[in-house]
């Protein structure tokens, strides 16, 4: 099932990228979808077509870690250490009470993402 979801994400990304002109395209995954977005980014990188950006909303490091509610700081450290340009990795902590399934209700979610992408694509 995971391979199928990844293949679907790669297909949608490639379709969008072929039609976007010069506009950057990002992969955006939420919760378990962050694994799909990350896998799709890896597949595209291996094919020689690195993605313009990846947004991971309410991510986890692996299913075991997700099941025991491991702090997200560990995931940030992994991404920060893995990426050459440290300024392109950012962790945003939203106010308590939104929890992972309600981040979409945050008034600042889109503003935060747009600001981050604007900095990356400037």
From TrEMBL:
Q: Which GO terms describe its molecular function?
A: monoacylglycerol lipase activity; phosphatidylcholine lysophospholipase activity
List residues of the Serine aminopeptidase S33 domain.
Answer: 5-78
Q: Which InterPro entries match?
A: AB_hydrolase_fold, Hydrolase_4
Name residues in a coiled coil. Answer: none
GO terms classed as biological process: monoacylglycerol catabolic process; phosphatidylserine catabolic process
Top-level taxon: Eukaryota
* Any single GO CC term annotated in Swiss-Prot or TrEMBL for this entry: endoplasmic reticulum membrane
PANTHER family annotated for this entry? ALPHA/BETA HYDROLASE DOMAIN-CONTAINING PROTEIN, PROTEIN ABHD12B
- Protein's UniProt name: Protein ABHD12B isoform X1
Q: What organism is this sequence from?
A: Physeter macrocephalus (Sperm whale)
Q: Tell me the classification of the organism that encodes this protein.
A: Eukaryota, Metazoa, Chordata, Craniata, Vertebrata
């Amino acid at each position: 099932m995971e391979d199928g979801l990844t293949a679907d994400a790669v297909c949608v990304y490639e379709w969008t990228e072929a039609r976007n002109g010069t506009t950057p395209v990002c992969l955006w995954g939420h919760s378990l979808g962050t694994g799909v977005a990350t896998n799709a980014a890896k597949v595209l990188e291996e094919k020689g077509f690195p993605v313009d950006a990846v947004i991971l909303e309410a991510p986890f490091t692996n299913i075991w870690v997700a099941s025991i509610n491991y702090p997200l700081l560990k995931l940030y450290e992994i991404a920060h250490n893995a990426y050459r340009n440290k300024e392109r990795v950012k962790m945003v902590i939203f106010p308590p009470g939104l929890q992972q399934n309600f981040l979409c209700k945050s008034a600042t979610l889109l503003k935060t993402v747009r600001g981050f992408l604007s900095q990356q694509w400037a």
